[in-house]
Each structure stands twice: as structure tokens, then as C-alpha cells.
Write a structure and sequence with these properties.
Elements (H helix, E strand, L loop, with lengths): L1 H17 L5 H8 L8 H13 L3 E4 L7 E4 L6 E5 L5 E4 L22 E4 L2 H5 L12
Parallel strand pairs: 3-5
Antiparallel strand pairs: 1-2, 3-4
Helix pairs in contact: 1-2, 1-3, 2-3
Length: 135
């Protein structure tokens, strides 16, 4: 049971420390610093459990695998870098988008994704995590 708790804690911490939504593979890479023997099946199992328990939520972008972030963020949107594919939180909102809906329609919710290049890719620096070397 201790191992399971350590694994779950490492997964939760990896997502919290990243401060951005992570793919399961990104979670695995980050959590392995804490639990070196961690496997992808264990990551998926724990992500599912943490979502069911209300600690994590899935971020679903069109045509992408779900990423995971900590629950508790206020309403926010996302930015995806077209170069490194990472996703970042955008803590701003254009507000009521009801004016964009067809006449007579009622907007109940919205989700906005911005696309472009992150600051690292814009500056020409190698994307974070792309130069991993394993010894």
C-alpha cells in the first residue's frame, strides 16, 4: 500500500509542480524522479482514480489525447504551442461570448484554446524537456 501511495503522490505532485496540463507520458517522466520504477500503466490507473476522486480533471483539446491538471483552477483557457505541442494555462477570459452565438441561442459555457509558439520556442531555446539524456 505504501508503494501505491508513493506512486499516487508522485503523480499528483508532478502535475501540480508543472503548473500546466500534462499528457500521461509527461506525467510519467516527471514522476519517475520520485519513483524511478514507475510504469505507464500505473500512471494511467492513478490518473483515472485521481479524476474519479475529484483531485484532477482532464483537459481535452480537439484531436489531442487528454492532458491532466489539478482541480481548483478558476475558469481558464489554454494555449498550445504548435512547435513543442505543450499546453499551458491561460488565466484570462474574454468574458461573455454570448454575443457570438446565433440570434436566439443561449451560451451556457465556453472553452477557448489559443495556438502559437510558447516563449521557449519563440526565443529559439530548446523546448523544456527535449534535451533529456539518460545515463
Amino acid at each position: 500500500m505504501e508503494r501505491n501511495t508513493r506512486q499516487r503522490s508522485a503523480i499528483r505532485d508532478a502535475i501540480a509542480q508543472a503548473q500546466r496540463p500534462l499528457l500521461p507520458q509527461e506525467v510519467l517522466e516527471a514522476a519517475r524522479t520520485e519513483v524511478p520504477g514507475l510504469g505507464i500503466a500505473t500512471v494511467y490507473r492513478n490518473l483515472k482514480a485521481l479524476v474519479e476522486e475529484g483531485e484532477l480533471q482532464a483537459v481535452n483539446l480537439p484531436g489531442e489525447n487528454p492532458r491532466f491538471e489539478v482541480v481548483g483552477h478558476r475558469h481558464h483557457h489554454h494555449f498550445q504551442c504548435r512547435q513543442c505541442q505543450r499546453v499551458f494555462d491561460v488565466h484570462a477570459c474574454p468574458g461573455d461570448l454570448g454575443r457570438l452565438a446565433p440570434q436566439g441561442f443561449t451560451v451556457e459555457d465556453h472553452d477557448l484554446t489559443l495556438y502559437g509558439r510558447c516563449s521557449e520556442c519563440s526565443s529559439g531555446a530548446p523546448p523544456h524537456g527535449s534535451s533529456h539524456t539518460h545515463s
